[in-house]
Amino acid sequence: MKKSSWCLILSLLLVFSLFPSSLVAADSSQVLTFNNKITGAITNAGDELHQYSFVVPSAGRVNVEVFSEIREALFYVMAPDGTTELAKEDLYYGSESEPKKWDTWLDLEAGTYLIKVKQYGKNTGAYSLKLTHTPANGQDIEPNDSTDAAQPLNLKGTVQKGLISESDSVDVYRLDVPSAGRVDLEAFSYIREVLLYVLDGDGTTEITKQDLYYGSLDEPQKWTQSLDLEAGTYYFKVKKYGSNTGKYTIKANHTPVKGNDAEPNNNTEQSQALQTNNKAQTGYISESDDVDVYRFQLPKAGQIDLEAISQIREVLIYVLDADGTTEIDKADLYYGSDQEPKKWNESLDLEAGTYFIKVKKYGSNTGKYTLKANYKAYNGHDAEPNDTKEMAQSIQLTNQLVKGWISWSDDVDMYKFTVPKTGPVQLDFTSQINEVLVYLLANDGVTELYKNDVYYASDDQPKKVVQKLQLKPGTYYVKVKKYGANTGAYSLRMKELTPPAAPKVNALKSQSTKVTGKAEPSSTVTVYSGKTLIGKGTANKSGNFTVSIKAQKAGKSLTVYATDAAGNRSTAAKVIVK
């Protein structure tokens, strides 16, 4: 035998002496088993390739450990198709005295995989391979990589274990939400980086998305999210980021909301009736429900007291006129939560009609709210419309009480009265409005004879003003005008202060049982004996009156008065019984 052959045999004996005697040498058809180390060697100075197969019994993590004494060699982990590279390492500078190590892991589905060892250049030498397998013990059922193949995820808090592997880029779970309510999601990721999505029923619209990174076996990353969802089907998608793989867990809890808003109610045509003077209405703004609209009706003008209590971080509340677009009031209610709901109250003075309340999502904020409306009818006398000179409502100078109402849609009330003769007239105005303007206008309905800005009034503390004016015969107007956005009730009295002339009394005999004469038309005529009222009657339109009395003794002195409708009493007319 030649000297060179002896040298080759001797070198091979030295190589294999580095490995334990219990290990088995490999060939190109050998099957690798877990937890057993095998050895192999590249011996020829040609393009030599060694191939091994191994079977993964269940999805899990496979650790690959390689030691190489070859100056340079290529190591591959291949997918079951034998062509797709799952991992590759160009391991160089290995030697007998200092073998080079390659230690890696792969998250693999169940199946048969390959390891290839390929010569690099003319380098030869020994190597060893060892595989270990850690089952994922997951419950995801492959394939579950689309909404059509989605795996059901219960909503009772059961933990679902899953695995993103080399060949499994996506896992999709289906959430069947039986009723509107809050779904609390929790995920733990042992993956360096992974994407989490919650999708709407169409399987494409993203409700929320999370890029969860820096997860590991030692320090899994946690993600939680609470979503307010309507009844329906939703999807939870776990998606590979880059080449990162590993285990994860997810769970979902559903808490129904005890609401009574009837979807869809997101516009005026679909608005839901809100009953006044009734219990609170519970509503829900969810991921797919941006707007709730309610309708309430006022049979008469009156005050509506609105109350909203919000558990939403921020939400918009609108009160709309009958057209469904004109804003009567708006509130941006923020910092609400389940633990500390925020409250909004508003009182509005409205005319009879239909109105709407719109609750609108702000940003992505969702949650529960309640609405309540209490209504108190206004029992007034102003006849709408009476907001111009031509439509002015007639009132008498008789101290007649007129109750009026300035509302959101009623800025002006006009009244007209007639002064029959020159004399003083008294305006008596009482306001329950925070601020309002009252005018006395001349016959043209424009010229101001008197103006008062009445302010700081309320239902609890009305404010009263009294003004006397000397007026000539003619027609005049009282105008009550809104100031700013202030609304509410008021009352008005107009009174003529000139007393009637003393009645003219006809002669009275002792046997007479009637007092007759003439007084101011329509005035009340009273007859007294001393301080005792003995008879009362009313003058007709011509001023004639007849008052029935008991017959009086001759020489008795009687006193007769005329009192007009405003309560002004004339001077006394005396008559002696004959």
From TrEMBL:
Residues 411-481 form the Peptidase C-terminal archaeal/bacterial domain. Coiled coil: none annotated. Residues 253-275 are annotated as: Disordered. It comes from the Bacteria. Keywords: Signal. Residues 263-275 have a biased composition (Polar residues). Residues 1-25 form the signal peptide. Pfam families: Big_6, PPC. Residues 500-577 form the Bacterial Ig domain. This is Bacterial Ig domain-containing protein. It comes from Paenibacillus lactis. The lineage of its organism: Bacteria, Bacillati, Bacillota, Bacilli, Bacillales.
